Amino acid sequence: xxxxxxxxxxxxxxxxxxxxxxxxxxxxxxxxxxxxxxxxxxxxxxxxxxxxxxxxxxxxxxxxxxxxxxxxxxxxxxxxxxxxxxxxxxxxxxxxxxxxxxxxxxxxxxxxxxxxxxxxxxxxxxxxxxxxxxxxxxxxxxxxxxxxxxxxxxxxxxxxxxxxxxxxxxxxxxxxxxxxxxxxxxxxxxxxxxxxxxxxxxxxxxxxxxxxxxxxxxxxxxxxxxxxxxxxxxxxxxxxxxxxxxxxxxxxxxxxxxxxxxxxxxxxxxxxxxxxxxxxxxxxxxxxxxxxxxxxxxxxxxxxxxxxxxxxxxxxxxxxxxxxxxxxxxxxxxxxxxxxxxxxxxxxxxxxxxxxxxxxxxxxxxxxxxxxxxxxxxxxxxxxxxxxxxxxxxxxxxxxxxxxxxxxxxxxxxxxxxxxxxxxxxxxxxxxxxxxxxxxxxxxxxxxxxxxxxxxxxxxxxxxxxxxxxxxxxxxxxxxxxxxxxxxxxxxxxxxxxxxxxxxxxxxxxxxxxxxxxxxxxxxxxxxxxxxxxxxxxxxxx
Amino acid sequence: xxxxxxxxxxxxxxxxxxxxxxxxxxxxxxxxxxxxxxxxxxxxxxxxxxxxxxxxxxxxxxxxxxxxxxxxxxxxxxxxxxxxxxxxxxxxxxxxxxxxxxxxxxxxxxxxxxxxxxxxxxxxxxxxxxxxxxxxxxxxxxxxxxxxxxxxxxxxxxxxxxxxxxxxxxxxxxxxxxxxxxxxxxxxxxxxxxxxxxxxxxxxxxxxxxxxxxxxxxxxxxxxxxxxxxxxxxxxxxxxxxxxxxxxxxxxxxxxxxxxxxxxxxxxxxxxxxxxxxxxxxxxxxxxxxxxxxxxxxxxxxxxxxxxxxxxxx
Amino acid sequence: xxxxxxxxxxxxxxxxxxxxxxxxxxxxxxxxxxxxxxxxxxxxxxxxxxxxxxxxxxxxxxxxxxxxxxxxxxxxxxxxxxxxxxxxxxxxxxxxxxxxxxxxxxxxxxxxxxxxxxxxxxxxxxxxxxxxxxxxxxxxxxxxxxxxxxxxxxxxxxxxxxxxxxxxxxxxxxxxxxxxxxxxxxxxxxxxxxxxxxxxxxxxxxxxxxxxxxxxxxxxxxxxxxxxxxxxxxxxxxxxxxxxxxxxxxxxxxxxxxxxxxxxxxxxxxxxxxxxxxxxxxxxxxxxxxxxxxxxxxxxxxxxxxxxx
Lengths: 542, 314, 309
Prior knowledge:
The complex is a heterotrimer of chains A (542), B (314) and C (309).
Chain A: H1 2-18, E1 33-37, H2 53-62, E2 67-70, E3 73-76, E4 79-84, E5 90-95, H3 109-120, H4 140-144, E6 156-160, E7 163-167, H5 175-178, H6 189-194, E8 211-217, E9 221-226, E10 240-244, H7 249-257, E11 263-265, H8 273-281, E12 287-300, H9 310-318, H10 322-330, E13 335-336, H11 352-355, H12 365-378, E14 387-391, H13 397-412, E15 416-420, H14 423-431, E16 437-443, H15 450-453, H16 470-481, H17 485-502, E17 506-518, E18 522-523, E19 526-527, E20 533-534, E21 539-540
Parallel strand pairs in A: 1-10, 14-15, 14-16
Antiparallel strand pairs in A: 2-3, 4-5, 5-7, 6-7, 8-9, 9-10, 11-17, 12-16, 12-17, 13-17, 18-21, 19-20
Helix pairs in contact in A: 9-12, 16-17
Chain B: H1 15-25, H2 38-47, H3 50-72, H4 104-140, H5 142-157, H6 160-171, H7 175-201, H8 205-212, H9 217-228, H10 230-253, H11 265-275, H12 281-308
Helix pairs in contact in B: 1-9, 2-12, 3-4, 3-12, 4-5, 4-7, 4-9, 4-10, 4-12, 5-7, 6-7, 7-9, 7-10, 10-11, 10-12, 11-12
Chain C: H1 2-29, H2 43-52, H3 59-71, H4 86-121, H5 126-140, H6 143-157, H7 173-200, H8 202-209, H9 214-226, H10 228-242, H11 246-251, H12 257-267, H13 270-298
Helix pairs in contact in C: 1-13, 4-5, 4-7, 4-10, 4-13, 5-7, 6-7, 7-9, 7-10, 8-9, 10-13, 12-13
């Protein structure tokens, strides 16, 4: 009887376990299809509200500004011609006549004016977080911050359907490339003013780029298909771009290995740390690695004893082995950093880092020990107190912190507590200077050293170290006031000398790199200096 | 909703606790008559249960290594050695090394100290609170039940992540705040299981009989109802220790777990999920130790319960 | 009975109100806000955002506004996903979590009870030991390890399943396994533990003596009395599983509610945190209410609607 019962129960278990049928098709991308991982749902596909790389990766296919970047140079896109005045303050832009919106409307200068002013509107619904990217334009900041400016005083005006006049606050040598940035995208005035939530779903979405939004399954996938009336339609070879939203790195890696993805890794995906190390070691041909204009560094709390002392900060910075960190801990083709501005940023004629080769400091454990003792003595201390090195969860933050803490311990004989902190708590602590030493990273907003230099001015919105130096502030001002690139670069190099060489306000660790796995059949996908992807001209060759 | 691996039921298997309950469980109305004193009888039954004895032996060995293991090797658990990363087990590093070249033997036993302490203390706290609250809900019923029930549900539904972040910000991270964060909601599952048991048992003949003889509420709960709910309580406890151990690893991402370079089994297993494809021993040793410990706990727990309850001798 | 249900309903609504209040102040008490990023926005832009969302008002004022909206059944818009309402997000993602959850619950209960019963019937025999061994391993090995290993071997190496997504029936297999191994193991242990006691009880012996068939005894007498702890566990488990598991959803790329909930906390997406919390609590309370009714059905001696004790 027992046996009969058992048989019954076993068969129930078995039938549940078997579940559904079987068979599995791993259909590779059909024809001209490019598949990559966004890692997450884009928070928005509205140019005004964008501020992140996930959104911009999708949007770079959907929208196009007055210029677009090609091999690091800004080339005309929606613009047919851009004339710049002698003083570098006035831009007159002719819009190309054959530019179309995906609903058939013509792209006009009015769309640009409307879009930029909409982004600057302090009462936009909700307000645009990246509005400050437009502050180069005269009157933009005053309008956006309610500082007495009105919308009519903003220096952008459509004088007719195809002519846009832009007035700048300061001469800005890199303004043409800024025009390709997503905050400078146009929106269709008629569509957007009629439906404020136009960017919520695929069926109300109107764009002007090489692709249009064919489907948006929220938090699951996004599909783009070519826009037939795009002026440069002939250059667009892909028939479909398929984005998935997988947050787990090992899942992404499994999908790549089973041919469910053509692209894995940066800018929006990730390759598991150890796997990347293996790929590099094996010289895997599908791994593409290139420098990224992004610096990984530690903030010292310059307002807190003993980190207020430059010698203490220098000692800490000199007592670590950066080469060992990139070779054996972060293991992703990073480059040890001894300055703040990373390679890949333009100087006068060459790369800024190739022009400014000053060695701000060298690693030296013995020297560091001496400096530390001196610094502590200056602060009236006899020994370095135990302090906390904080970082958020994710990436290589923890192993790097553990390695550095161990190096400090061995080379300086000090005790460091490493502490993971929840992301927003971490940000809050950093902004309010409630930390000792904290992880930080900075990627370029635009291709000029200024994107790294002006953040450290006294009271700067991203200066979360408490660093304040009058000479530094003056040099930044000087660089802002001139169009002469040599003078600008000189001023910024002097500023960097103050920041790192004299003060070591922060501790540079390494310059990041972009590591991606690309299937061999994928051709002509571009990655720019800051790691952004351009798949618009890609094609599949099997 | 419980985040990550905190779909948890926490509690612990603590032999001393059962030793106390055991005396009370004798006067449960039942058929088996006894000759020896109850304590001797139970010890004897436990002693003759070879499975339970083997498990006890394993637990003793694990505790022994948790205390002395880290000192048996020349390597400590925190020092990096970037020239000896990811090495397999060898005569020098018995369990191999991790990605920063730290000795896994030392880390695994250091981790045993931390994980077992957290698992057992958090589980014990859950057991005490859970049984007390569940007992009250189930026995008194009515308003008491309604209020405690609602209270536990509200507490259970408050986003756990928010609670953890608040605890970490206000109280900082140490062993006690970790256990506190786990206990705030950890007892609830236990209390619901106990409540259901007691609701069922309290209407059975022997309880009604005890009551008619004038036994008080707490007397009935402690002497009759809880001892007869031991089965589900012990099973719930067996789930509690590992879930507390993994909850700790999860909390460490939010700044409330054991912080590096100290290791715990949960954190070691979590970290190993990055590397197991290439260096399987980094997953195998902590996960294997955890599994063996849990097996021993469970078999021993079953043995204990069997020893308490002579009905089990089918 | 009707009055009983009505009273319960009022109590549940009251609890939801308490929960909303507690969660509101809790989430405002922890550091951070929705607008903090690695790159800070300028102070003036931040001010615009703070004003727009009303965070410049005193906390009690914000609370009253929130309550007012709640009474109008307005959960608001997500602060992270632009132009998406909280209700839309919950509806959309709950659909995925529910589909997967229902399968996982059925599998957990059926398999768990079945193997628990087998173990109880063969108490202390080899098969019992093997089942309990497997169940302990199932409890000791966490679901993120199972999910990761399962995905690698079965989807990547053997290619039996897709790596991620829920697009066909086969896609349910791996996530269901990852979700159900722990509940199966737990339910099996729970069932075994109570069934052993029940099977040894006098009334089962009496029934056997009366010559009733094993199956009848098992189903009519033993299971009834032995399943109560399982029922106690299944109530909250149902609420947990159908509202999604962040681990399983992240690994298998499922756009479910569990992941949204975790993300909403790390993004400090206040409206979404509140929305999902209330939604989850409603399901939890409902499932526990049903559990109580199930008690009374399983064991008529349990009186749920009258004062006990």
